[in-house]
């Protein structure tokens, strides 16, 4: 007797797309909120403080390049999402997708916070008094987003 088996579904294409989109969106939130609206820092503000026109221009260029990276990540994630949408074996789940976006956005904060704020020191979340607290809070917030996203992924796993 031949039986038709259940199709095997996978989360990976949706997870990869969501994480990539989350990395881009995390960068956009940082750039728009912290760089432009609050103006707490710019890409090179600890190395080239905004004390003259030349430094302001240089920081603006680097902020723009940062937004180009955010844009490329976001578009790449959308292309990956589009490709996943053409597959029959992808487990389409809002929890999987939004959990992955949270993981990506959180990873952005953790990676950017460790590399740019701590290792390279090219800028800090909010320079001045309590600078380290702001930097660590940024990293911890990112880690919290990763944790919440990971929990959402675990809850969305299905057994087939």
Automatic annotation (TrEMBL):
Transmembrane segments: 14-38, 64-85, 97-120, 132-153
InterPro entries noted in UniProt: DUF2243_membrane
Pfam families: DUF2243
This protein's UniProt keywords: Membrane, Transmembrane, Transmembrane helix
Protein name as catalogued: DUF2243 domain-containing protein
The species this protein was found in: Nostoc piscinale CENA21
């Amino acid at each position: 007797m031949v039986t038709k088996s259940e199709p095997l579904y996978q989360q990976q294409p949706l997870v990869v797309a969501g994480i990539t989109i989350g990395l881009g969106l995390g960068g956009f939130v940082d750039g728009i909120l912290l760089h432009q609206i609050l103006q707490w820092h710019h890409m090179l503000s600890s190395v080239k403080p905004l004390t003259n026109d030349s430094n302001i221009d240089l920081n603006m260029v680097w902020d723009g390049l940062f937004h180009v990276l955010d844009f490329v990540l976001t578009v790449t994630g959308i292309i990956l999402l589009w490709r996943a949408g053409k597959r029959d074996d992808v487990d389409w789940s809002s929890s999987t997708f939004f959990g992955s976006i949270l993981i990506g956005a959180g990873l952005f904060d953790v990676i950017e916070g460790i590399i740019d704020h701590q290792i390279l020191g090219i800028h800090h979340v909010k320079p001045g008094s309590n600078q380290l607290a702001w930097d660590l809070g940024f990293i911890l917030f990112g880690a919290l987003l990763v944790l919440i996203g990971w929990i959402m992924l675990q809850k969305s796993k299905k057994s087939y």
